[in-house]
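Regression report. Comparing outputs from two consecutive submissions.

Submission 1:
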Amino acid sequence: MKNYPFKTRMRVRDYECDIQGIVNNANYFHYAEHTRHLFLKSLGLSFSLMHEKGIDLVVARVNAQFKIPLKNDDEFISCLDYKKEGLKYIFYQDIYRVRDEKLCFRVESISVCIINGKLSFSEEIDKALNL
Protein backbone atom coordinates (compact mmCIF):
# COMPACT_ATOMS: atom_id res chain seq x y z
CA MET A 1 0.00 0.00 0.00
CA LYS A 2 1.44 3.36 -1.00
CA ASN A 3 1.44 6.47 1.14
CA TYR A 4 -1.77 8.55 1.03
CA PRO A 5 -2.56 11.93 2.60
CA PHE A 6 -5.81 10.50 4.05
CA LYS A 7 -7.00 7.04 5.12
CA THR A 8 -10.03 5.78 7.02
CA ARG A 9 -10.97 2.30 8.20
CA MET A 10 -14.44 0.83 7.66
CA ARG A 11 -16.25 -2.51 7.81
CA VAL A 12 -18.70 -4.04 5.33
CA ARG A 13 -22.24 -4.32 6.70
CA ASP A 14 -24.41 -7.29 5.75
CA TYR A 15 -27.05 -5.21 3.95
CA GLU A 16 -24.39 -3.89 1.56
CA CYS A 17 -23.93 -7.37 0.05
CA ASP A 18 -25.88 -8.84 -2.84
CA ILE A 19 -27.23 -12.36 -3.33
CA GLN A 20 -23.71 -13.50 -4.32
CA GLY A 21 -22.44 -12.55 -0.86
CA ILE A 22 -20.21 -9.75 -2.13
CA VAL A 23 -20.50 -5.99 -1.77
CA ASN A 24 -22.88 -4.59 -4.36
CA ASN A 25 -20.96 -2.40 -6.82
CA ALA A 26 -22.88 0.78 -5.92
CA ASN A 27 -21.67 0.60 -2.32
CA TYR A 28 -18.05 1.14 -3.34
CA PHE A 29 -19.08 4.59 -4.57
CA HIS A 30 -20.70 5.24 -1.17
CA TYR A 31 -17.46 4.24 0.55
CA ALA A 32 -15.47 6.57 -1.72
CA GLU A 33 -17.88 9.46 -1.19
CA HIS A 34 -17.87 8.97 2.58
CA THR A 35 -14.07 9.00 2.50
CA ARG A 36 -14.00 12.28 0.53
CA HIS A 37 -16.45 13.84 2.99
CA LEU A 38 -14.39 12.69 6.00
CA PHE A 39 -11.24 14.02 4.35
CA LEU A 40 -12.75 17.44 3.69
CA LYS A 41 -14.24 17.52 7.19
CA SER A 42 -10.77 16.80 8.61
CA LEU A 43 -9.63 19.98 6.82
CA GLY A 44 -12.45 22.02 8.36
CA LEU A 45 -14.77 21.94 5.33
CA SER A 46 -18.43 21.07 5.94
CA PHE A 47 -20.62 20.22 2.96
CA SER A 48 -23.71 21.61 4.68
CA LEU A 49 -22.03 24.88 5.71
CA MET A 50 -20.50 25.33 2.25
CA HIS A 51 -23.92 24.69 0.67
CA GLU A 52 -25.46 27.37 2.90
CA LYS A 53 -22.88 29.79 1.40
CA GLY A 54 -23.84 28.67 -2.12
CA ILE A 55 -20.70 26.55 -2.60
CA ASP A 56 -21.22 22.98 -3.83
CA LEU A 57 -18.43 20.55 -4.66
CA VAL A 58 -20.02 18.04 -7.03
CA VAL A 59 -18.80 14.92 -8.81
CA ALA A 60 -18.62 15.47 -12.56
CA ARG A 61 -17.04 12.19 -13.68
CA VAL A 62 -15.78 8.89 -12.29
CA ASN A 63 -13.58 6.14 -13.65
CA ALA A 64 -13.78 2.99 -11.52
CA GLN A 65 -12.04 -0.37 -11.46
CA PHE A 66 -13.37 -3.30 -9.44
CA LYS A 67 -10.49 -5.62 -8.51
CA ILE A 68 -11.28 -8.11 -5.70
CA PRO A 69 -14.71 -8.20 -4.03
CA LEU A 70 -15.26 -7.33 -0.41
CA LYS A 71 -17.57 -9.59 1.61
CA ASN A 72 -19.70 -9.22 4.73
CA ASP A 73 -17.69 -8.14 7.80
CA ASP A 74 -14.51 -7.49 5.80
CA GLU A 75 -12.58 -4.57 7.22
CA PHE A 76 -11.07 -2.25 4.67
CA ILE A 77 -8.96 0.87 4.44
CA SER A 78 -10.26 3.59 2.15
CA CYS A 79 -7.38 5.77 0.94
CA LEU A 80 -7.40 9.13 -0.80
CA ASP A 81 -4.98 11.30 -2.72
CA TYR A 82 -5.81 14.39 -4.78
CA LYS A 83 -4.64 17.09 -7.13
CA LYS A 84 -6.15 20.03 -8.96
CA GLU A 85 -6.17 20.74 -12.70
CA GLY A 86 -7.78 24.02 -13.65
CA LEU A 87 -11.24 24.03 -12.09
CA LYS A 88 -11.20 20.25 -11.53
CA TYR A 89 -10.42 18.55 -8.23
CA ILE A 90 -9.23 15.03 -8.96
CA PHE A 91 -9.53 12.49 -6.15
CA TYR A 92 -7.63 9.22 -6.48
CA GLN A 93 -9.11 6.65 -4.16
CA ASP A 94 -8.15 3.06 -3.40
CA ILE A 95 -9.84 0.54 -1.12
CA TYR A 96 -7.73 -2.24 0.39
CA ARG A 97 -8.96 -5.27 2.31
CA VAL A 98 -7.31 -5.19 5.75
CA ARG A 99 -6.58 -8.91 6.21
CA ASP A 100 -4.27 -9.18 3.20
CA GLU A 101 -3.92 -5.57 1.93
CA LYS A 102 -5.30 -6.59 -1.49
CA LEU A 103 -6.55 -3.76 -3.68
CA CYS A 104 -10.33 -4.18 -4.04
CA PHE A 105 -11.46 -0.98 -5.72
CA ARG A 106 -9.86 1.99 -7.43
CA VAL A 107 -11.68 5.13 -8.51
CA GLU A 108 -10.72 8.47 -9.96
CA SER A 109 -13.41 11.02 -9.12
CA ILE A 110 -13.37 14.40 -10.80
CA SER A 111 -15.25 17.08 -8.93
CA VAL A 112 -15.97 20.69 -9.76
CA CYS A 113 -17.16 23.60 -7.69
CA ILE A 114 -20.50 25.22 -8.36
CA ILE A 115 -20.93 28.60 -6.66
CA ASN A 116 -24.42 30.04 -6.71
CA GLY A 117 -25.28 27.83 -9.66
CA LYS A 118 -22.20 28.61 -11.77
CA LEU A 119 -19.04 26.61 -12.39
CA SER A 120 -16.39 28.51 -10.48
CA PHE A 121 -13.13 28.59 -8.54
CA SER A 122 -13.38 28.20 -4.74
CA GLU A 123 -10.74 30.00 -2.72
CA GLU A 124 -12.08 28.32 0.44
CA ILE A 125 -11.60 24.78 -0.92
CA ASP A 126 -8.20 25.57 -2.46
CA LYS A 127 -6.98 27.04 0.83
CA ALA A 128 -8.13 23.97 2.82
CA LEU A 129 -6.40 21.65 0.31
CA ASN A 130 -3.22 23.79 0.30
CA LEU A 131 -3.50 24.37 -3.44
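Submission 2:
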Amino acid sequence: MSSKVTIIGAGSVGATIAYTLSHQNIASEIVLIDINKEKVAGEVMDIEQGTCFRDPISIVAGDYADAKDSDIVIITSGIARKPGQTRIELTQTNVNILKSITPEIVKEAPNAIYIMVSNPVDIMTYVFTKISGIPENQIIGSGTVLDTARLRCGLAEHFDIAQKNIHAYVFGEHGDTSFIPWSRALISGVRLDEYVEIMRSKGKDVAELDKEAMLEYVQKSGGKIIANKGATFYAVATSVCNLCAKILAAYDSMATVSSMMHGDYGIEDVCLSTLTLVGPKGIQSKIPMPMSDDEVEQLKASADALKSVIAQIDL
Protein backbone atom coordinates (compact mmCIF):
# COMPACT_ATOMS: atom_id res chain seq x y z
CA MET A 1 0.00 0.00 0.00
CA SER A 2 1.43 3.36 -1.01
CA SER A 3 0.11 6.02 1.34
CA LYS A 4 1.51 9.04 3.13
CA VAL A 5 0.64 9.98 6.70
CA THR A 6 1.78 13.20 8.35
CA ILE A 7 1.70 13.54 12.13
CA ILE A 8 1.86 16.98 13.71
CA GLY A 9 3.19 16.85 17.24
CA ALA A 10 6.01 14.55 18.41
CA GLY A 11 4.96 14.26 22.04
CA SER A 12 4.08 10.95 23.65
CA VAL A 13 0.92 10.47 21.58
CA GLY A 14 2.29 11.65 18.22
CA ALA A 15 5.52 9.70 18.54
CA THR A 16 3.69 6.55 19.62
CA ILE A 17 1.34 6.86 16.65
CA ALA A 18 4.38 7.16 14.36
CA TYR A 19 6.01 4.13 16.01
CA THR A 20 2.83 2.05 15.77
CA LEU A 21 2.30 3.00 12.13
CA SER A 22 5.90 2.11 11.35
CA HIS A 23 5.22 -1.54 12.27
CA GLN A 24 1.98 -1.88 10.34
CA ASN A 25 1.27 -2.07 6.62
CA ILE A 26 -0.79 1.11 6.62
CA ALA A 27 1.61 3.82 5.44
CA SER A 28 4.63 3.73 3.14
CA GLU A 29 5.63 7.29 4.12
CA ILE A 30 5.46 8.89 7.57
CA VAL A 31 6.28 12.55 8.20
CA LEU A 32 6.63 13.71 11.81
CA ILE A 33 6.49 17.46 12.46
CA ASP A 34 7.13 19.30 15.71
CA ILE A 35 8.29 22.74 16.79
CA ASN A 36 11.02 21.02 18.84
CA LYS A 37 13.36 20.02 16.03
CA GLU A 38 15.79 18.06 18.19
CA LYS A 39 13.00 16.05 19.78
CA VAL A 40 11.39 15.12 16.48
CA ALA A 41 14.77 14.21 14.95
CA GLY A 42 15.48 11.93 17.88
CA GLU A 43 12.07 10.28 17.68
CA VAL A 44 12.43 9.62 13.95
CA MET A 45 15.92 8.19 14.35
CA ASP A 46 14.78 5.89 17.14
CA ILE A 47 11.73 4.70 15.20
CA GLU A 48 13.57 4.32 11.89
CA GLN A 49 16.30 2.16 13.41
CA GLY A 50 13.67 -0.34 14.51
CA THR A 51 12.16 -0.85 11.05
CA CYS A 52 14.87 -3.12 9.62
CA PHE A 53 12.66 -6.17 10.22
CA ARG A 54 9.84 -5.00 7.95
CA ASP A 55 9.40 -3.90 4.34
CA PRO A 56 11.11 -0.57 3.60
CA ILE A 57 9.28 2.52 4.84
CA SER A 58 10.15 6.22 4.66
CA ILE A 59 10.12 8.09 7.98
CA VAL A 60 11.28 11.71 8.08
CA ALA A 61 11.42 14.58 10.52
CA GLY A 62 9.93 17.33 8.40
CA ASP A 63 8.36 20.74 8.10
CA TYR A 64 4.90 21.66 6.84
CA ALA A 65 6.11 21.61 3.23
CA ASP A 66 6.95 17.92 3.63
CA ALA A 67 3.24 17.20 4.26
CA LYS A 68 2.43 17.85 0.59
CA ASP A 69 0.32 15.09 -0.99
CA SER A 70 -0.43 13.46 2.36
CA ASP A 71 -3.35 11.06 2.37
CA ILE A 72 -3.89 11.55 6.10
CA VAL A 73 -2.82 14.30 8.49
CA ILE A 74 -3.01 13.53 12.21
CA ILE A 75 -2.96 16.49 14.60
CA THR A 76 -1.77 15.72 18.12
CA SER A 77 -0.26 19.10 19.03
CA GLY A 78 -1.14 20.69 22.33
CA ILE A 79 -0.34 20.79 25.99
CA ALA A 80 -0.76 17.40 27.66
CA ARG A 81 -3.32 16.90 30.38
CA LYS A 82 -1.77 16.96 33.84
CA PRO A 83 -2.81 14.75 36.78
CA GLY A 84 -6.14 15.96 38.16
CA GLN A 85 -6.74 18.29 35.20
CA THR A 86 -9.85 17.91 33.06
CA ARG A 87 -9.78 17.97 29.28
CA ILE A 88 -11.89 21.10 29.23
CA GLU A 89 -9.28 23.02 31.26
CA LEU A 90 -6.90 22.55 28.35
CA THR A 91 -9.23 24.22 25.91
CA GLN A 92 -8.10 27.77 25.15
CA THR A 93 -4.37 26.98 25.19
CA ASN A 94 -4.76 24.12 22.75
CA VAL A 95 -7.23 26.06 20.59
CA ASN A 96 -4.61 28.80 20.22
CA ILE A 97 -2.00 26.23 19.20
CA LEU A 98 -4.42 24.77 16.63
CA LYS A 99 -5.16 28.21 15.21
CA SER A 100 -1.45 28.73 14.54
CA ILE A 101 -1.02 25.31 12.95
CA THR A 102 -4.13 25.20 10.74
CA PRO A 103 -3.25 27.65 7.94
CA GLU A 104 0.27 26.17 7.62
CA ILE A 105 -0.83 22.57 7.19
CA VAL A 106 -3.98 23.21 5.16
CA LYS A 107 -1.95 25.14 2.59
CA GLU A 108 0.26 22.10 2.00
CA ALA A 109 -2.29 19.28 2.28
CA PRO A 110 -5.75 20.54 1.27
CA ASN A 111 -6.92 17.13 0.04
CA ALA A 112 -5.88 15.04 3.03
CA ILE A 113 -8.22 13.40 5.51
CA TYR A 114 -7.58 15.08 8.85
CA ILE A 115 -7.73 13.17 12.12
CA MET A 116 -7.94 15.39 15.20
CA VAL A 117 -6.48 13.81 18.34
CA SER A 118 -5.54 16.85 20.45
CA ASN A 119 -7.71 17.33 23.54
CA PRO A 120 -10.38 18.38 24.20
CA VAL A 121 -10.90 16.58 20.92
CA ASP A 122 -14.55 17.53 20.30
CA ILE A 123 -13.81 21.23 20.76
CA MET A 124 -10.65 20.99 18.66
CA THR A 125 -12.56 19.19 15.89
CA TYR A 126 -15.21 21.92 15.98
CA VAL A 127 -12.61 24.71 15.82
CA PHE A 128 -10.73 23.06 12.96
CA THR A 129 -13.99 22.55 11.06
CA LYS A 130 -14.85 26.24 11.49
CA ILE A 131 -11.46 27.77 10.62
CA SER A 132 -9.73 25.40 8.19
CA GLY A 133 -11.88 25.68 5.06
CA ILE A 134 -11.49 21.91 4.66
CA PRO A 135 -14.68 20.07 3.61
CA GLU A 136 -16.38 18.49 6.61
CA ASN A 137 -16.15 14.95 5.24
CA GLN A 138 -12.34 15.27 5.42
CA ILE A 139 -12.34 16.12 9.15
CA ILE A 140 -12.53 13.32 11.71
CA GLY A 141 -12.17 13.73 15.46
CA SER A 142 -10.88 10.61 17.21
CA GLY A 143 -13.84 11.16 19.51
CA THR A 144 -14.99 8.16 21.53
CA VAL A 145 -13.11 5.55 19.49
CA LEU A 146 -10.80 5.06 22.47
CA ASP A 147 -13.71 5.19 24.95
CA THR A 148 -15.47 2.49 22.93
CA ALA A 149 -12.30 0.38 22.97
CA ARG A 150 -12.12 0.79 26.75
CA LEU A 151 -15.78 -0.23 27.05
CA ARG A 152 -15.25 -3.37 24.99
CA CYS A 153 -12.16 -4.20 27.01
CA GLY A 154 -14.14 -3.90 30.24
CA LEU A 155 -17.07 -5.91 28.90
CA ALA A 156 -14.77 -8.61 27.55
CA GLU A 157 -13.18 -9.01 30.97
CA HIS A 158 -16.56 -9.08 32.71
CA PHE A 159 -18.18 -11.61 30.37
CA ASP A 160 -14.97 -13.55 29.66
CA ILE A 161 -15.44 -13.32 25.90
CA ALA A 162 -13.36 -11.99 23.01
CA GLN A 163 -13.73 -8.28 22.32
CA LYS A 164 -14.47 -8.93 18.64
CA ASN A 165 -17.80 -10.49 19.68
CA ILE A 166 -18.91 -7.33 21.48
CA HIS A 167 -20.83 -4.55 19.71
CA ALA A 168 -21.26 -1.72 22.19
CA TYR A 169 -20.43 1.96 21.85
CA VAL A 170 -19.72 5.13 23.77
CA PHE A 171 -21.49 8.24 22.44
CA GLY A 172 -21.21 11.96 23.10
CA GLU A 173 -18.22 13.91 24.35
CA HIS A 174 -14.83 12.30 24.76
CA GLY A 175 -14.99 13.15 28.43
CA ASP A 176 -17.19 13.36 31.50
CA THR A 177 -20.56 13.63 29.71
CA SER A 178 -20.07 10.57 27.54
CA PHE A 179 -22.61 7.76 27.88
CA ILE A 180 -23.27 4.21 26.74
CA PRO A 181 -26.43 3.44 24.70
CA TRP A 182 -27.07 0.19 26.57
CA SER A 183 -30.25 -0.45 24.59
CA ARG A 184 -28.05 -1.23 21.57
CA ALA A 185 -25.20 -3.07 23.32
CA LEU A 186 -24.88 -6.61 22.00
CA ILE A 187 -22.74 -9.71 22.34
CA SER A 188 -22.92 -11.58 19.02
CA GLY A 189 -26.38 -10.16 18.36
CA VAL A 190 -27.71 -10.86 21.86
CA ARG A 191 -28.61 -8.10 24.33
CA LEU A 192 -26.42 -8.12 27.44
CA ASP A 193 -29.16 -9.04 29.91
CA GLU A 194 -30.28 -11.89 27.66
CA TYR A 195 -26.68 -13.04 27.27
CA VAL A 196 -26.32 -13.37 31.05
CA GLU A 197 -29.44 -15.56 31.18
CA ILE A 198 -28.28 -17.70 28.27
CA MET A 199 -24.84 -18.27 29.77
CA ARG A 200 -26.33 -19.15 33.14
CA SER A 201 -28.62 -21.68 31.46
CA LYS A 202 -25.47 -23.24 30.00
CA GLY A 203 -23.94 -23.59 33.46
CA LYS A 204 -21.57 -20.64 33.21
CA ASP A 205 -21.28 -18.38 36.26
CA VAL A 206 -21.81 -14.89 34.83
CA ALA A 207 -22.41 -11.95 37.18
CA GLU A 208 -24.92 -9.21 36.48
CA LEU A 209 -23.29 -6.17 34.88
CA ASP A 210 -23.06 -2.99 36.97
CA LYS A 211 -23.66 -0.54 34.15
CA GLU A 212 -22.89 2.57 36.20
CA ALA A 213 -19.58 1.07 37.33
CA MET A 214 -18.73 0.18 33.72
CA LEU A 215 -19.38 3.75 32.57
CA GLU A 216 -17.19 5.04 35.39
CA TYR A 217 -14.45 2.61 34.32
CA VAL A 218 -14.63 4.02 30.79
CA GLN A 219 -14.69 7.68 31.87
CA LYS A 220 -12.02 7.43 34.55
CA SER A 221 -9.53 5.13 32.78
CA GLY A 222 -7.59 8.01 31.21
CA GLY A 223 -7.28 9.90 34.48
CA LYS A 224 -6.19 6.78 36.34
CA ILE A 225 -3.51 5.99 33.76
CA ILE A 226 -2.25 9.58 33.91
CA ALA A 227 -2.11 9.42 37.71
CA ASN A 228 -0.19 6.13 37.57
CA LYS A 229 2.27 6.74 34.73
CA GLY A 230 1.98 10.42 33.77
CA ALA A 231 0.36 10.12 30.33
CA THR A 232 -1.79 7.93 28.08
CA PHE A 233 -0.48 7.01 24.65
CA TYR A 234 -0.49 3.30 23.80
CA ALA A 235 -4.25 2.73 23.49
CA VAL A 236 -4.95 6.07 21.81
CA ALA A 237 -2.15 5.41 19.29
CA THR A 238 -3.61 2.01 18.45
CA SER A 239 -7.08 3.57 18.09
CA VAL A 240 -5.81 6.27 15.72
CA CYS A 241 -3.87 3.75 13.63
CA ASN A 242 -7.06 1.70 13.35
CA LEU A 243 -8.81 4.82 12.06
CA CYS A 244 -6.04 5.27 9.48
CA ALA A 245 -6.57 1.69 8.32
CA LYS A 246 -10.31 2.32 7.96
CA ILE A 247 -9.67 5.46 5.90
CA LEU A 248 -7.25 3.69 3.58
CA ALA A 249 -9.33 0.51 3.22
CA ALA A 250 -11.34 -0.49 0.16
CA TYR A 251 -14.64 -0.44 2.06
CA ASP A 252 -16.36 1.78 4.59
CA SER A 253 -16.45 0.89 8.29
CA MET A 254 -18.33 2.02 11.38
CA ALA A 255 -16.65 4.08 14.08
CA THR A 256 -17.67 6.41 16.89
CA VAL A 257 -15.78 9.45 15.62
CA SER A 258 -16.46 13.11 16.35
CA SER A 259 -17.81 15.30 13.58
CA MET A 260 -20.21 18.20 13.03
CA MET A 261 -23.85 17.53 13.86
CA HIS A 262 -26.48 18.79 11.42
CA GLY A 263 -29.80 18.00 13.05
CA ASP A 264 -28.89 14.43 13.99
CA TYR A 265 -31.00 13.53 17.05
CA GLY A 266 -32.09 17.18 17.05
CA ILE A 267 -28.53 18.46 17.61
CA GLU A 268 -26.88 21.24 15.59
CA ASP A 269 -23.53 23.06 15.39
CA VAL A 270 -21.36 20.96 17.68
CA CYS A 271 -18.94 18.08 17.17
CA LEU A 272 -19.40 14.89 19.16
CA SER A 273 -19.40 11.14 18.60
CA THR A 274 -22.19 8.96 17.31
CA LEU A 275 -22.08 5.95 15.01
CA THR A 276 -20.47 7.10 11.75
CA LEU A 277 -19.63 5.56 8.38
CA VAL A 278 -15.92 6.15 7.70
CA GLY A 279 -13.86 5.16 4.68
CA PRO A 280 -11.62 6.23 1.79
CA LYS A 281 -13.48 9.52 1.35
CA GLY A 282 -13.46 10.30 5.06
CA ILE A 283 -16.83 10.64 6.72
CA GLN A 284 -19.64 9.30 4.55
CA SER A 285 -22.53 9.95 6.92
CA LYS A 286 -23.81 9.67 10.47
CA ILE A 287 -25.74 6.45 11.01
CA PRO A 288 -28.97 7.16 12.95
CA MET A 289 -28.79 4.28 15.42
CA PRO A 290 -32.14 4.07 17.24
CA MET A 291 -31.86 4.93 20.93
CA SER A 292 -34.26 5.22 23.83
CA ASP A 293 -35.65 8.66 24.71
CA ASP A 294 -33.43 8.75 27.79
CA GLU A 295 -30.34 8.01 25.71
CA VAL A 296 -31.19 10.76 23.23
CA GLU A 297 -31.53 13.17 26.16
CA GLN A 298 -28.09 12.11 27.41
CA LEU A 299 -26.64 12.86 23.98
CA LYS A 300 -28.29 16.28 23.97
CA ALA A 301 -26.92 16.98 27.45
CA SER A 302 -23.43 16.10 26.23
CA ALA A 303 -23.90 18.45 23.26
CA ASP A 304 -25.08 21.26 25.56
CA ALA A 305 -22.03 20.80 27.81
CA LEU A 306 -19.72 21.15 24.82
CA LYS A 307 -21.62 24.15 23.48
CA SER A 308 -21.23 25.92 26.83
CA VAL A 309 -17.45 25.56 26.52
CA ILE A 310 -17.44 26.68 22.88
CA ALA A 311 -19.33 29.81 23.93
CA GLN A 312 -16.47 30.71 26.29
CA ILE A 313 -13.50 30.27 23.96
CA ASP A 314 -11.94 32.71 21.53
CA LEU A 315 -12.21 31.30 18.02
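Expected: both submissions complete independently.
Actual: both completed, but the second showed a warning that disappeared on reload.
Relevant detail on submission 2: Residues 21 and 95 are 26 Å apart (CA to CA).
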